[in-house]
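B., you asked whether I could sanity-check this one before it goes into the benchmark set. Here's the sequence:
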Amino acid sequence: MNHGSAHPDRRLLLKGSLAVGAAATGALSAAQGSARAATPRTAANPLVPHRADPHIHRHHDGRYYFTATAPEYDRIILRRSRTLRGIATAEEAVVWRRHTSGDMAAHIWAPEIHHIDGKWYIYFASAPAHDVWKIRMWVLENAHRDPFKGTWVEKGRIATAWDTFSLDATTFTYEGARYLAWAQKDPGEDHNSAVFLSRMADPWTLAGPQVRLTTPEYDWECVGFKVNEGASFLQRNGRVFMTYSASATDANYCIGLLTAEAGSDLLDPRSWTKSPRPVLTSNDRTKQYGPGHNSFTVAEDGRTDVLVYHARQYRDIVGDPLNDPNRHTRVQRLGWRTDGTPDFGVPVADGPVSLT
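And here's what the prediction gave me:
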């Protein structure tokens, strides 16, 4: 999720979106009806209305754990289900709320939930009440086996090389080492954010060099704002794939792709090849706009890769895109080409979608 050059009036966060929200109601009702008719091997899009930057973790207990950005930008929510389609109707719990003053008081963005060394962690971005664009990355920890129970402890801010705008932290392991990727403003570059990578000393501390993997350079990465953000990783077929999102958060928002060979040094930018064109974009035929900030999971069969992302059901937005709450969580099967590279296809239309 990127930001504008002017501060939006957060008191008007939802007020300006009532008209466009009403326009989407019919489509949502139809999709929810499809959800009731879905079979265990299908889901219905949108999976969760009004939830952006979605992240789904499939745990070893066989359940899916879901979190995402709430449009009020004031809390962190969790859902869980034994099926992907069940996330749509799963009870939602608020596990943490923004502070009323000081740090972590504004712009609660893009949470991700991870299970590391027997504990649960949530990575998210926030800003202080007095400076709502001073956005930085923070970590919560819960030692209880059930993340809906226990206590979420604030472990503090993730310190990076620069004290600049940073968000969209995600973590993964590769060849026995844990890494963190995130989006940050490089003070020496003319952009809003680029994607960086570092090894981790522990789940809230970076260790060693912090390298930039991609910066906005193509025209499609620089529409509205010069943005690379929202990284997610998938290791398949002898390669490491990193998706990221680019441009402003309106219909120009899209997904790009970097690829590295397995066994290569991920901290060497030369290991990565950047695709010259986006791999998922707005589609007039399916009526899905601004697909982005994705994550990956697997279907109930444990084999089929599933793409998780958000999109809107209309192209035109009234006012600042960040004040429009109608970015909905969506899922669809991730295809694979014969050469072992992912085939993202197009953002599928509303309604039932097969995940196996």
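One thing to flag: Confidence is low (pLDDT under 50) at residues 4-27, 34-38. Otherwise nothing jumped out at me.
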